[in-house]
Specification:
about 140 residues, alpha+beta, Glutaredoxin, 4-stranded mixed beta sheet, two-stranded antiparallel sheet, 3 helices, globular
Length: about 140
């Protein structure tokens, strides 16, 4: 199965995750989800395969989350899903899908757990943080 990343090029975490995937030797399918949002069915699949907690995939910072009243504890999951589809910026990122599963990769090094080749050596994130990826002997 190929690797797919739901990516926002304006997000440093998303850029770091994409760079780690490429460092693993894979050129992923990049879906800029703000331009090409997932379908309702795909978003439901992502939610299900990442543990079933829709709230874990909702981005609050830098989004219309509060203005839309999405912080209402009585809001149904269907209403939250509708809001995410109408305003894709509400979908947290980056989300990566591989043969090993689907994961929200925050922080970006979480992607290493679902790559076939996580041995990317030492990786320096955009902010200067160094990630030591597992070696093949780990």
């Amino acid at each position: 199965m190929p690797v797919t990343i739901y990516h926002n090029p304006a997000c440093g975490t998303s850029r770091n995750t994409l760079a780690m995937i490429r460092a693993s030797g894979v050129e992923p399918t990049v879906i800029e989800y703000l331009k090409t949002p997932p379908t309702r069915e795909k978003l439901q699949e992502i939610i299900s395969k990442t543990g079933g907690n829709i709230h874990a995939l909702v981005r609050e910072k830098g989004t219309p989350y509060a203005e839309l009243g999405l912080d209402n504890p009585h809001l149904s999951e269907e209403a939250l899903l509708d809001a995410m589809l109408q305003h894709p910026i509400l979908i947290n990122r980056p989300i990566v899908e591989t043969s090993k599963g689907i994961k929200l990769c925050r922080p970006s090094e979480l992607v290493l757990g679902i790559l076939d080749n996580a041995n990317i050596g030492t990786f320096t994130k955009e902010d200067g943080e160094v990630v030591h990826a597992p070696s093949k002997s780990d």
